[in-house]
Amino acid sequence: MSAHADNDLSDHRRAKLAAWRARGGVYPNDFRRSHLAAELHERLAERSKEALAKDEVQVSVAGRIMLRRMMGKACFLTIEDVSARIQIYARVDGLEQGAYDDIEGLMDLGDIVGVCGVMMRTMRGELTVQASSIELLSKCLHPLPEKFHGLVDQETRYRARYLDLMMNEASRDVFKLRAKVVSGIRTFFEARDFLEVETPMMQPVASGAAARPFTTHHNALDMPLYLRVAPELYLKRLVVGGFERVFEINRNFRNEGLSTRHNPEFTMLEFYQAYASVDEVMALTTALIHQIAAHTGRRRVTLDGAQIDLSADFDAMSMEEAVCKHTGLSRDDAWNTDALLRTLGSEAPALEEAAPAGKRSAGELLFALFEARVEPNLLTPTYITGYPSEVSPLSRANDDRPEIVDRFELFIGGREIANGFSELNDPDEQLERFRAQEARRAAGDAEAMRIDHDYVRALEYGLPPTGGQGLGIDRLVMLLSGVSTIRDVLLFPLLKPEGGGHGE
Q1: How far apart are CA 291 and CA 180, in angstroms?
Q2: pLDDT tens-digit readout, 468-485
Q3: Residues 36-83: pLDDT tens digits?
Q4: Strand ranges inside 389-464, DSSP E
Q5: How many domains is the chain built from?
Q6: CB environment 247-276: b (16+ within 10 A), e (fewer)
Q7: Is the dihedral of CA 472, 475, 479, 480 positive or negative?
Q8: Do residues 402 and 389 touch, judged by C-beta distance below 8 A?
Q9: Shared-domain flag, residues 53 and 176
Q10: CA 39 to CA 53: how far, in whole Å?
Q11: Is residue 339 included in any domain, yes or no?
Q12: Euclidean distance between CA atoms 415 and 482, whole angstroms
């Protein structure tokens, strides 16, 4: 529809609003419904036309007009509420004087109405409310998207999510699924005696993950603050304090680019358990995914044409094993900087921002090769273990191989879903790791962590042996719903202002 035609229709609707205002009583708030549409369909599913006529089931329903058929002195409307759609039948002699004229004179598709009447079945057997009254509750001043194709323009779907939810049942289903995932996570951890907590979203030190923070300023204290990139260090402070099992479903903020997998504001689960190792955290993660898949009825999902069984056992391999398997690199060369650079080839220049040429360690190169060549190929659920210590500043070093840490990441469908490890609880080593991060920052790595001296002080009081994990809820919902972009699972993803400006 052209903008000119849309404006004409909107003007026509505003004229109807003006006529409604002239009568008084616009936008009332005294209508009360007795039933949702789905309740009526379920309750009366087996009731025959004759039985309904005999029982005279009185109802009041409300919703948005999605279809309308005017037939002279009678009409059919279909309204939609949060649960389902239901048909309305109205005729001139069944309503108060003038009320039928309002259906055509004041009401349009998209308007929200309240209807009172009795239940009936049409000749075709469709459950219907025979209206004794119909009242306009709220006026829709713009035409709805074309009814047969719904709202298909992706940009409009994200920018005007209210229209997307109004017109696309599939979108509504994704967000119902998301809510079910979050409730399932809470049920899982509460059943295992974890305490749900809340930690600060504004922090004096941006730490807990390698990421660029958003910066703000507290006027009264005249100090800079950062939107959190992760809640990790605060959650581990709670373990120091004696809360041995904690979890948080949290919003994080990272000042990074937009992509199909990244939004600057996103939701994660983080949990920590005292006296647990990385192996126990992996087992708990597998149990969580299995339970969520069962809870949502998504034990098997299809992603980019591939069938993925989320109820089966998960694979596991070390990072060096995965790199050698997918690149042909020998185990002897897996920690050789020259061999890694040759294998990286064209991807090597992309590392310049993180570490200047000549200063890249074998561990950094191994990790870069893994991200470039291996990660996209990990379709079935796979744990990757044995991460280099250089890229894992908060993880406990492996007892047998100090160049790696006791850390894993879970990949499904070529996407990182979870990241966990045995926590580093040696305060002196943690301080040295932080100092190494500061050196990286000074060398140009804008994502390197800052030193959090208060966290180091907390460790000095004693953090018990602890395992922890972070899981991306947005990516998990993407997996379970089979969508390929994170914007489809965020109600209001970040978008550039229309026209490329900065907004008002």
Answers
A1: 12
A2: 999 999 999 999 999 989
A3: 999 999 999 999 999 999 999 999 999 999 999 999 999 999 999 999
A4: 404-412, 415-422
A5: 2
A6: bbbbebbbbeeeeebebbebbbbbbbbbeb
A7: positive
A8: yes
A9: no
A10: 19
A11: no
A12: 13
